[in-house]
User: What shape does this take?
Amino acid sequence: MTQARFLRSARIAAASLAMGALALTGCSANAGNTGTAKADASAQSALLTIPREDMGTFVRNFNPFAPTVNPMVQQSIYESLLIFNPAKGDTTPWLATEWQAADDGKSITFTLRDGVKWSDGKPLVADDVAYTFELQKKIKGGFEYLETVTAEGTNKVVFSFNKPWSPALYDLGQLTILPKHIWSALADPGKEANAKPVGTGPYTEVDSFQAQSFVLKKNPNYWQPEKQKIAGIKMLAFAGNDGANVAAANGDVDWAPQYIPNIEKTFISKDKEHRQYWFPATGAMINWQLNTTKAPFNDVEVRKALSMAVDRDQVTKIGMSGYATPADCTGLSGNYEKWKNASLKDNCTWTKLDVNAANGILDKAGYAKGADGKRTLKDGTPFEFKISVGASSSDWLSVANVISQNLAEIGVTAKVDSPDWAAVVAGYETGDFDSGIVWSANDPSPYKYFNTSMGTATVKPVGTKTFDNYHRFGDAKADALLAEFAAGADESKQRDIANKLQERYNDVAPLVPLFSGPVWGAFNDTRFTGWPTEENPYATLSDRAPTTVLVLTSLEPRK
Assistant: This one.
């Protein structure tokens, strides 16, 4: 859903009950390798084995537009023009070697890399890029600022905007590119299974496919053959975190990019020489979203009161094993520390636990508390609602349960609803939900976060699908600031505007920010070396981020 839309489906967090015997049957890193996955003479042919903890089964569908995107579609099969690494704050040219923004801010020209081929041997050309954006807008929407995409010859692409738009670089640069000669021949690209994908990425060839595992082998025409040092990738399906964590603890997987509670004891202690983890605070802000099309969530005072009832220290300690940092009223995650309004951050009120104040606000607003200690809405019906979270996410279910218990202290009843993630996300997208725990946009600048939390252009009517502003909140004053931010290219001026956006966010409380999401990542280097770490942050340890391809092209078998 984000290459920022696409990434959104990828951010569905990890974990609960697993596929039982799956962790121990048919799921070892390679046949014959068990326990600590000891290296042997076949290391050069070993498959990089990765669990996918939120997918109990795989369907042979490699369409990046699919509601639930298969693992590695946008990380290993298709590639983008550039890659931004939030762990280091740098940008790596990828399918493009350079780009130039126009002086008036109304266009960007990308120059494509010479010699890049699709896995079927045909060359990557500018028409592929132009067609990808045409298809993206048709199927998923977005890119409202984008007026035209024009191929100039075979290696230059000009993106023209209907207004100056400084956030465009990463929005455009991180969308994965598709081959026009394949996709333009399809009758219905949005629904095509794309069972045999053709991409520019390092591992594109579907070597085997089963409901609980699949293997991707080397792209025979990759533009960086010297970086294809691993034989391929093996993905394993788990219905929750528990099974994936058992596989990690047993040494049956090489990469463990999921939430692992008490990781020092349950994972690291099994083999301290070869196991590491790294959870940089560069992830998205994790919000408790309230559907503002419904009363009483359309009342800012109610939103603030509910927020004040939440014990974020308890949320992060119990729900996130202490790995996360509680949010403040700027709304910004740890990815944007340099953008935060310092004076506002130090004087937050509604993101601090204050049960007495929360009770006072609700009393004053007319949400009366009865003799039984429970509140009613203004029409006399019980003040109760659901918090929707996918059943596989043990961490976020714990977060929701903590919030439910906290709200009981102010007489509000919140019931945790946990169907599968597909059903939860479908409700978010159409507006058929009360509240839920949700990730947020996480671009290099804070523009997209504020646009998707307060921009009126991102608000869709209930019943119309949206892939961004699930809570359906818009604010005209925020719109004006967002337009000013997008039109400017000077970062010092953008910082001043960002400060004002944070002040507006503080005023209207569009969301209830909970904590800055850690980017989960752990590995076992028994068989593969070259992993990113805090000391060498060339990428994050996420297997579903733009930087994942940097990891895939850096790992090599242990010698």
